[in-house]
Amino acid sequence: MTRLATALFRNAQSAGRNFRDGERHNIRQGEEGTTERILLNLAKTIPELHVGAFSHREESRYGADWEWWISDGSNKWFQLVIQAKKLQTPKAHPAGKYKIKHKIRSSGMQQIDLLDLYARKSGAQSLYALYNPAARGVRYSDHRCCLGPSGDRITAVSADVFLKRFPRTKGLIDDVPLAAIREYALPWSCLANDRVATHDVPPPPGPSPLTFMQFAQWTVMQDANRDSLGTFDSTSAAYSLLVNSVTMKALAQSQDWFTRNYRHYLDDWMGVERPGQPEEWKDAQKIAISRHESSDELFAQQRIRIFDRAELPAYVSAVLSNEPIPEDVRHPFSEIDAAPKQILTLIAPPRVQPVEPPGEPQNLTNTTCYPFRVTSHQSPFQYRYLGR
Q: How confident is the model at residue 380, as a pLDDT?
């Protein structure tokens, strides 16, 4: 695991407890305050992480909660834009829902459309961080990370999932129930981890069954993003964040489309991972990833812009230098009051020393961990890297 993954996991634990305790004591915890506490904790835990903000706070009323610029120390950078949403449990929806329907009065745009617009224009990946209370017996994700089950108190979902998987009513995407988003939500600590999370749904027969998330990650790494991925050290947490954020975007697409267009990758994956499998196991695994309608737009939309150090915007360079953003520097979306509330920079180079696991008993009974790369018939754990 990586040090960043451990820090994200611990913040998910504490945020979940705070949401639960806030409800008990009638001191409800909001999204903005929770985000600020999380970013403070991350900055204290990870010295390479710097946080900045624009001095004109009125420009940040409707933008993303934070914009994250990430490098592995090679002077190559990529960008994530993240919007936080707390699980709401009104009487009409006691099981919980996320308020995706929010519309911006000043621009007339839905918040998610504004997030998507900026991500597409800047070559960034757009994600939602979903904040959830600690609750016994409640699952917030169908995917379990190796760090422990309570990691799903903050999950990450690609904005593309909401845009592509949920219908619009009068031009607006409705609020999304918890039950409808579980299969697309990943414990956010897994974004920075070196192994892909697995699915808790009972698998088809045979050892080490293939899940859609694993296959999506495999195709992401093999195909259109290879040039982008190749600029980063595969043993760094930066690489993990890039691969996993793109994989989550791929989950917004069709499992059937993957099967039809990337069958050769499926055959390669299975031939390398488990040579000599009985044909009925292979057929069961292929069937398991063929369940939704198709879309032919996947990798055309997967391109990520990789920035050189000299190409970073002035406000990012200021934060990277741990200096205030100058008064005369504006964000590209400040004209519509949509600058992000916080700007983060992180250099996450490879490590040569292992990091301590989080202090939670791990129940791996239903968890199978896979490496990013499967190149021989070795044990999956042989490929675990020691990133930051």
A: 28
CA 241 from chain centre, in angstroms, equals 7
State how many domains the chain has: 1
Burial 343-359 (b: 16+ CB within 10 A, else e): bbbbbbbbbeeebeebe
Indicate the pTM of the whole model: 0.79
Write the CA distances from 253 to 34, 60, 72, 190, 287, integer angstroms.
31, 31, 28, 20, 17
Residues in the chain: 388
Alpha-carbon distances, residue 361 vs 146, 147, 150, 270 (angstroms): 11, 9, 10, 32
Residues 63 and 375: their CA atoms lie apart, in Å, by 42
Contacts of 165 (CB under 8 A, 6+ apart): 184, 252
Residue with tokens 């089950």: 149
- Structure confidence by residue, pLDDT tens digits, 141-200: 988 777 887 889 999 999 999 998 898 988 899 999 999 999 899 999 989 986 554 444
User: Is 353 inside any structural domain?
Assistant: yes
388 within some domain: no
- DSSP designation for 337: T
- Give the model's pLDDT for residue 200: 43
